[in-house]
Amino acid sequence: MEFNGSLVATLALCAVHVTVKHWRFLDGPRGHHWLSVGAGTALAYVFTYLLPKLAVVQQEITEFQGPFAGFLRQQAYLLALIGLLTLFAVDKAAARMPPETRLELTRGLVLQIVIYGIYSVQLGYLLANFRQPDLATYVLAAAILGFHLMGMDHHIAHRHPIAFGSVLRWVLAACCVAGWAIGAFTDGLNYVVLLSNAFVAGGIVVIAVREELRDQHSTLLPFFAAVAIASAGIITLQFWQATH
Prior knowledge:
mainly alpha
C-alpha cells in the first residue's frame, strides 16, 4: 500500500501539472472560489501536518551526525523561512518580467523553472515519506496538494502561458516523479526529509497567501477562513485516527 499509494498520489499531482491549463472553470465567475479552496486547504495542511511533522523530524535527527546536525537541531524552522523567502523572491521577479510573445528561455524564466522544479521534486519526495501510509492518508494528501498545485500552476500559466503550455508543465510533472523516486528508493536521508518539509511549508504559505491578499479577493475572506478551518479539522481527525 505504501509504495503503490504514494506513486498514485504522485501521478495525480502530475496530472494537475499537465492538465490545469485546460481547467476553464478557474477563469470563470467562480474561479476565485476554487482558488480560495486551494489556498485554505494548503494552509491548513501546513499548520496541522507539515510543521508538526517537522518538529518530530527535528527530534529524530538528534541521533544523526553530520556537518550541519547541530544547526538543524536548533534552527530547523529557519529552513521554512528560507523556503518562504525563496518563493516570494521568485514571484516578485516574475511579476516584473514583460508579457510573453514567444517562447524564449530568459534568465528569469530559467530561474522559475529551477525553483518550481525543485519545489515539485520536494512534493514528490514528501509523498514518498509519509509516516501513516494508508489509503485515506494518500487520498487526503493528493487532494490537498492537488488543490495547492491548481492555484500555483494557474498563476504561473497566466504569467507565462506559452512557456507553461509547451515546456514548464511537463518539467514540473517530471520533477514530481523524480522526487517520488528519490524518496521511494533511497534511505537514510534525514537531512533531505527535514529540508523538504521545511521548504515546502514555507512555499505553500507564500503561494496561498498570495492568492488571498489580492484586493479583488477581499470579499472571499469568510469563505477562505471557513475552508481553512474545515480542512484543518478534517486533516487533524484523519492523522489522529491514523496514529490511534
